[in-house]
């Protein structure tokens, strides 16, 4: 059908919003000249969309009751059975609820998206199903994924499996809780500031943020295309490595990818750490809110690696702190433009667009007052930077990010891995309903000190469980060279095999 043409008055109004003044005569002339372009719009409207076919049967599923969902970790339940054989045959999977699963509702933790149903599967979904996995549903995630806690999701706050009433971490909150509680074998999370690794640390599981662009982000709702990562969350190292083998590699649809270097990650699991060079990152232990008990657990785990044969030294990389600071101008201005003004897609990149998601996300403007405080905060910062400074700080921060990456690279020329606490504190109590803006935002952002940096620099980073403090899990984070995920698995597997972390 033909698109609606603007009236003469609407053309004048459009011009005015573009800071252009038109006389009625000029507007009429332009309106006539616009018609051939609108004919092209008509053609696009008539053609079917060019999206991947859905290859595995599934039902639309259902919202589980609170009785069947005690941690609030499920958003939607369904069952999609994959191939009869493959690397993940017999394994069950939960998908973070910003990942498209055709025919099954996707809310991304936010009321403006409630009722949206994707029409195609994300690339990682198809790859998991091709490898024999069975998808059991969508895991609750934080409000537009803008929280490192688990209290901002519009469906409900997600409870920690180790202590009800405490946060799981976020934004892949439900993904971590479902793996930790044994409801699924595997989960897929997303990471733009630590959203895989934070909940992995607080729920006592293994969370991998791969090298930027290693795993295609196609079919996952974007936040900021230079930060967007998706990766595996599992209860053991081998499953994590298997999952990454299945998920990694170019799909030809994600412009975030540039000839990613895929490896046989399971080949690293039995290599041990004898001779492995590990740099203990001093800045990673110097966060203002560092709990000394967390630091002690992590240093004890490092000592165990040293006893297993690793060569361990202290190292300083001041740019680690700088990289974390760069997140604010890039993340806040980027998400304001891409996820909000750009309706979840943005412009000027070639990739697979979800037109239905774009249409649905445009409705956020009608519910803007209900956006989470942490998202509002980022939008206020981002909009100010865009309006007052024309995006120059986004641009300059992207330039400086290359400097921060080079500093990591320099340290990783000497060391195979850098190591530090994943998060500086243990899981905190969930804020009470009606909590102040300050408390809500604090509980959403207080844990990002070590994890945001690798989203800026793109280096792979993995959180592994290394002990308990007051009955709550502690995470140790490894960082490696770009595309050196195998080295992360090498160290993680050696530590896992040496001790039951729950006894530490």
UniProtKB/TrEMBL annotation:
Residue ranges of every copy of the Amidase domain listed in the record: 82-488
MF terms in GO: catalytic activity
> What's the superkingdom here?
Bacteria
Which InterPro entries does this one have?
Answer: Amidase, Amidase_CS, Amidase_dom, AS_sf
The protein's name in its UniProt record: Amidase
Q: What is the lineage of its organism?
A: Bacteria, Pseudomonadati, Pseudomonadota, Gammaproteobacteria, Pseudomonadales
């Amino acid at each position: 059908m033909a698109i609606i043409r603007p009236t003469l008055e609407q053309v004048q109004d459009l011009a005015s919003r573009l800071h252009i003044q038109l006389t009625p005569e000029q507007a009429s002339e332009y309106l006539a000249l616009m018609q051939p372009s609108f004919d092209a719009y008509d053609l696009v409207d008539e053609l079917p969309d060019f999206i991947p076919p859905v290859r595995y049967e599934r039902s639309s599923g259902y919202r589980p009751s609170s009785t069947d969902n005690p941690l609030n970790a499920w958003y939607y339940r369904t069952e999609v059975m994959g191939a009869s054989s493959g690397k993940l045959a017999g394994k069950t999977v939960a998908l973070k609820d910003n990942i498209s699963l055709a025919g099954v509702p996707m809310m991304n933790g936010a009321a403006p998206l409630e009722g949206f149903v994707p029409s195609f599967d994300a690339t990682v979904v198809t790859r998991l199903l091709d490898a024999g996995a069975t998808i059991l549903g969508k895991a609750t995630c934080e409000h537009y994924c803008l929280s490192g806690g688990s209290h901002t999701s519009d469906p409900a706050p997600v409870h920690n499996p180790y202590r009800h009433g405490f946060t799981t971490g976020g934004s892949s909150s439900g993904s971590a809780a479902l793996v930790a509680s044994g409801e699924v074998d595997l989960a897929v999370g997303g990471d733009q500031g630590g959203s895989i690794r934070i909940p992995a640390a607080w729920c006592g599981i293994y969370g991998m943020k791969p090298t930027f662009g290693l795993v295609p982000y196609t079919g996952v709702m974007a936040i900021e295309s230079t930060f967007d990562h998706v990766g595996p969350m599992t209860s053991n190292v081998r499953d994590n490595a298997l999952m990454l083998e299945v998920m990694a590699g170019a799909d030809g649809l994600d412009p975030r990818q540039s000839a990613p270097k895929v490896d046989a990650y399971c080949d690293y699991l039995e290599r041990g750490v004898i001779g492995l060079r590990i740099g203990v990152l001093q800045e990673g232990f110097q966060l203002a809110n560092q709990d000394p008990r967390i630091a002690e657990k992590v240093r004890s785990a490092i000592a165990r690696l040293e006893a297993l044969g690793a060569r361990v030294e202290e190292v300083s990389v001041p740019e680690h702190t700088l990289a974390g600071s760069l997140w604010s101008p890039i993340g806040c201005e980027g998400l304001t433009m891409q996820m909000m003004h750009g309706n979840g897609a943005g412009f000027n990149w070639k990739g697979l667009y979800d037109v239905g998601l774009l249409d649905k996300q445009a409705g956020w403007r009608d519910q803007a007052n209900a956006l989470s405080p942490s998202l509002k905060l980022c939008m206020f910062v981002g909009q100010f930077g865009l309006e007052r400074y024309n995006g120059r700080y986004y641009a300059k921060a992207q330039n400086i990010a290359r400097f921060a990456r080079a500093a990591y690279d320099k340290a990783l020329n000497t060391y195979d891995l850098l190591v530090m606490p994943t998060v500086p504190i243990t899981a905190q109590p969930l804020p009470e309903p009606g909590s102040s803006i300050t408390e809500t935002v604090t509980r959403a952002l207080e844990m990002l000190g070590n994890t945001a940096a690798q989203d800026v620099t793109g280096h792979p980073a993995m959180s592994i469980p290394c002990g308990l403090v007051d009955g709550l899990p502690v995470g140790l984070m490894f960082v490696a060279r770009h595309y050196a995920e195998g080295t992360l698995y090498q160290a993680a597997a050696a530590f896992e095999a040496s001790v039951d972390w729950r006894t530490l």
